């Protein structure tokens, strides 16, 4: 497995990122992983490595770079410590959906600059889920797929809620929802599905019964190995049909 620590120039500064590939040979297709609130860390890089093993260049950028060095924090303890919880909430509140959508142009450019010439996809976890869908809407010329896992607020009343951008989406969308998740309740799932169908977006919204918010990420208290394997199987199919298709 090849792993590089790189810096990406954006319109607002320099973002640190991990670039992971199965070997030194650069694949033609790329995947961007949007982190959860705890930052770029080994747990996310483990996910990236498993995706890269299927033949993709995987980029894991720090979405909170505007605030300087951030964490990373262990998902098991990040919100239990008052000091780290304050930092995490501040970073989440100061990094908007529009910022991440804009940054995605630089992330696409970074993959292209390292030799990725083909289509790209984005996967987001927790807060990264909504950002993945919105980023795909903002960059339809290169993004062919997006996946959200235990993403929150995917169809609320906020002006930057993903369902509002459904008409701009050309990619295939997969949403994996935790069985019971207050950040993405059934009424939001219905609202998102309605928006996608009205805009003729190719999509799947799947409910992972028995899984709790955070089940995909190995350092999360909710991590479930069987559920994580199921999420990788869905990603493998999604990417095989879009990045290779």
Short description:
The chain is of the alpha/beta class and 245 residues long.
Question: What does it look like?
Answer:
The structure is a single chain. By secondary structure, the chain is of the alpha/beta class. It is built from six helices and eight strands, in the order βββαβααβαββαβα. Strands 1-2-4-3-5-6-7-8 form an eight-stranded mixed beta sheet, with helices on both faces. Helix 3 (97-113) crosses helix 4. The longest helix is centred in the last third of the chain and has 18 residues, at 225-242. The radius of gyration is 16 Å and the shape is globular.
Q: List the uncertain runs.
A: none
Strand content: 15-25%
Shape: globular
The beta-strand count equals 8
Strand order of the largest sheet: 1-2-4-3-5-6-7-8
Largest sheet: number of strands, sense, barrel closure: 8 strands, mixed
Order of helices and strands: EEEHEHHEHEEHEH
Structural class: alpha/beta
Mean pLDDT: 95
Rounded to an integer in angstroms, the radius of gyration calculated over CA atoms is 16 Å
Structure annotation, total helices: 6
Amino- and carboxy-terminal Cα gap: 24 Å
Helix content: 25-40%
């Amino acid at each position: 497995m090849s792993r590089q620590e790189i810096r990406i120039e954006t319109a607002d500064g320099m973002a640190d990122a991990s670039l992971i590939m199965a070997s030194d040979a650069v694949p033609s297709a790329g995947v961007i992983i949007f982190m959860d609130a705890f930052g770029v860390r080994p747990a996310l890089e483990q996910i990236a490595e498993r995706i890269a093993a299927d033949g993709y260049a995987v980029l894991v950028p720090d979405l909170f770079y505007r605030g300087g060095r951030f964490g990373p924090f262990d998902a098991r303890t990040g919100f239990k410590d008052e000091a780290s919880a304050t930092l995490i909430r501040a970073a989440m509140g100061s990094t908007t959906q529009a910022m991440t959508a804009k940054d995605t142009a630089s992330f696409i450019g970074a993959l292209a600059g390292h030799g990725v010439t083909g289509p790209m996809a984005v996967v987001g976890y927790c807060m990264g889920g909504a950002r993945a869908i919105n980023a795909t809407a903002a960059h339809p010329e290169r993004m062919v797929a997006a996946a959200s896992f235990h993403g929150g607020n995917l169809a609320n009343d906020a002006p930057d809620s993903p369902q509002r951008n459904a008409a701009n989406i050309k990619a295939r969308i997969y949403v994996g929802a935790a069985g019971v998740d207050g950040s993405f309740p059934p009424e939001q799932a219905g609202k998102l599905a309605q928006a996608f169908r009205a805009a003729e977006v190719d999509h799947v919204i799947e409910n992972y019964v028995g899984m709790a918010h955070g089940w995909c990420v190995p350092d999360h208290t909710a991590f479930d190995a069987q559920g994580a394997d199921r999420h990788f199987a869905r990603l493998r199919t999604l990417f095989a049909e879009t990045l290779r298709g």
